Amino acid sequence: MDRKGRGVGTFKAIRIDKTEAGQTVALGEFDERDLMPGDVTLRPQWSTLNYKDGLAVTGSAPVVRRFPMIAGIDAAGTVETSSHPQWKPGDNVILNGWGCGETHLGAYAQQARVNGDWLVALPRGLSAREAMAIGTAGYTAMLAVMALERAGLAPDRGPVVVTGAAGGVGSVALALLAGLGYHAVAATGRPAEAEYLKGLGAREIIERKELAGPVKPLARERFAGAIDCVGSTTLANVLSMIRYGGCVAACGLAGGMDLPASVAPFILRGVTLAGVDSVMCPQPLRRQAWQRLAESLDRAKLASMTSEIGLGQVIETGRRLLEGKVRGRIVVRIG
Fold this sequence. Notes:
By secondary structure, the chain is α/β, with parallel strands linked by helices. 28% of the residues lie in helices and 28% in strands.
């Protein structure tokens, strides 16, 4: 035992177990001998709380697919040991996705062992804390912006609506779009957050109910594009409102996985629906997204949308996140 009463070779982690009564989750000790194979061992310094993390720690959806599991899909930290040719001890790196917190032991821990091919070097000028203020949510937002750009959606094409705008992905998406000169429209079910959304760069704010209700095959053309974090009826309604030749980047399912839409927007208005995946995103695109975030995301806006918690607060904050009581980004202090 060490002086703090912990077993030698153990570390603190948020551990998820499965019992006959269901899933249990708690902050406790994890034995490093039970870490999964990998050629890089990290000491995470910061993590973050994403929607998927909330689902995992509350058991609200079957995110976790092996037990025991250490939760947490993101980490920014330092390489401790490495047999991977790209990484050496002392390197500062970012980990996003690749099944961490789902099928591979995750990042809400004082130690992690992963495949070195999953890592991205921390961009110059970006701190580990800032990287996790961005996290998978912000990195997904940049992938969505890049998808709109690949579809030819320039700022002069017209307004771009962001659904779930007060959430993690939505908050970063608004800041990115505003910084690039787009006319960003924030759609939210939390009108009390209007000033917050305007501060991130939203030029207009609409209520979520304008994108709810029965879906028409085609509605009035309102938006040149969209970044959708909600899915289901919201996404279907947004698609029906996109102008000719526009694009929607779909990256979330907070409203559901179904899509009660018609083919009309695609075959009558030439609308593109671009799927955005952050988990298995290829490394060249992943590195490009992180470099652009480091170069173009307004740090003052990032700070304004970020709050900080400790590892012991993750479980309760995850519950509040799913209840829609959390806005913006949350960094998790691991040390």
